[in-house]
């Protein structure tokens, strides 16, 4: 075992024994951290915590970064146990000073990432709490805030971690780093005008609330329910199943039809009958429609159906029919339309009332003919 006492790296004072001891510290710390994570996960799955979802999420969140945090602690304690010097030795060995500075900076970066990872995981607890609160409200607009708050906090944590790392590696105070970022931020802002425009567009959407998650909207020729609203864009699923992404900067300036907020579905149709229908039959045709729509399914007392013999078309007599269906459930509305159409067709056939269809009369003048032949089609 004497070879373990020999220097592994010339001029550093680091022996194989030091490396082995450090490895034991690191492996032991990682195993302890993994064991702690397993214990926290098992505690969170116990039946007595089934009704405490926030506590379950908290235990899972703090358990996720534990192995990495213990790894950083193991490296630090291992080096301290070995009495490793982070500065120059008594003889002023520059190589030892350089190695110590590299290790010290590495440890600083390691601990920064470990703490950032820990705080990053705790964002899940806040996200779960906000989601739990917003799920109890009637409006779904605040449901869109939960993912945006989560993303915002995580971006802030990552940025702060990188600033701390830059401060550690450059030996510059954080205010100086932030000042440098402010100068560079101007160039970034000029290069990311569209991104900034979309960010402020998302703020306008949240303030104006033209729609909520799940609402069916029609915008820019696209029709479908809203699936997600983010910092940069809004996603909606069209009725054909396609996922459409619209930048928020453009969406904030577009005309949005919120179909999901309509209180009813309106149908306006024209029932046409032939010109040779006598007035009595026309009146009967109107009466049949009024009878079929009297107190119809989905009717609101404030919006009764309207039936009028309103116009003489070029090839038919026109009866205008308007009615409103409540609530605005599209497929039930279509089922009602089908029943109405079938009953109307049956009643008109029984009454001898003919539906009109476009016709054309063609007169052909044949040579040598004393009279025109009339051909109807």
Write a structural description:
This protein is an alpha+beta fold and 377 residues long. The chain folds into three domains: 2-139 and 147-167, no CATH class; 196-260, SH3 type barrels; 262-351, Alpha-Beta Plaits, CATH 3.30.70.100. Helix content is 53%, strand content 15%. It contains ten helices and ten strands. The chain has helices spanning 16-44, 53-63, 66-81, 94-134, 141-170, 174-191, 193-208, 248-251, 279-292, 330-351, and strands at residues 216-219, 222-229, 233-237, 243-247, 257-258, 265-273, 306-312, 317-325, 361-364, 373-376. The strands form three sheets. It has a five-stranded antiparallel beta sheet. A three-stranded antiparallel beta sheet has the order 6-8-7, with helices on one face. The protein has a two-stranded antiparallel sheet with strand order 9-10. A hairpin with an 8-residue loop joins strand 9 (361-364) and strand 10. The longest helix is centred in the N-terminal third of the chain and has 41 residues, at 94-134. It is elongated, with a radius of gyration of 38 Å. The termini are far apart.
């Amino acid at each position: 075992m004497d070879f373990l006492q020999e220097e592994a790296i010339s001029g550093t004072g680091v022996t194989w024994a030091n490396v082995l001891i450090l490895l034991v510290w690191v492996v032991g710390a990682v195993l302890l951290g993994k064991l702690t994570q397993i214990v926290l996960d098992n505690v969170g799955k116990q039946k007595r915590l089934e009704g405490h979802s926030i506590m379950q999420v908290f235990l899972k969140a703090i358990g996720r970064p534990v192995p990495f945090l213990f790894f950083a602690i193991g490296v630090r304690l291992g080096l301290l146990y070995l009495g490793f010097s982070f500065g120059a030795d008594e003889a002023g060995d520059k190589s030892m000073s350089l190695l110590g500075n590299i290790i010290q900076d590495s440890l600083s970066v390691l601990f920064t990432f470990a703490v950032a990872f820990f705080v990053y995981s705790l964002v899940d607890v806040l996200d779960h709490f906000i989601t739990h609160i917003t799920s109890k409200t009637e409006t779904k607009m605040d449901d869109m805030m939960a993912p945006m708050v989560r993303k915002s906090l995580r971006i802030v944590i990552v940025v702060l971690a990188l600033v701390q790392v830059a401060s550690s590696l450059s030996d510059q105070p954080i205010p100086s780093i932030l000042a440098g970022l402010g100068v560079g931020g101007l160039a970034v802002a000029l290069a990311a005008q569209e991104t900034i425009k979309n960010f402020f567009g998302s703020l306008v959407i949240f303030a104006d609330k033209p729609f909520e998650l799940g609402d069916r909207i029609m915008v820019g020729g696209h029709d479908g329910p809203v699936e997600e609203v983010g910092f940069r864009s809004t996603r909606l699923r069209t009725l054909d199943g396609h996922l459409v992404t619209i930048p928020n900067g453009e969406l904030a300036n577009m005309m949005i039809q919120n179909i999901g907020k309509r209180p009813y579905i309106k149908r306006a149709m024209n029932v046409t009958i032939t010109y040779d229908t006598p007035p009595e039959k026309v009146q009967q045709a109107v009466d049949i429609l009024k009878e079929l729509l009297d107190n119809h399914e989905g009717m609101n007392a404030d919006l009764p159906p309207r039936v009028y013999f309103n116009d003489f078309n070029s090839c038919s007599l026109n009866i205008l029919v308007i009615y409103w269906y409540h609530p605005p459930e599209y497929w039930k509305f279509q089922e009602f339309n089908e029943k109405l159409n079938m009953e109307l067709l049956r009643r008109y056939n029984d009454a001898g009332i003919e539906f009109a269809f476009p016709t054309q009369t063609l007169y052909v003048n044949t040579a040598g003919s004393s009279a025109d032949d009339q051909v109807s089609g």
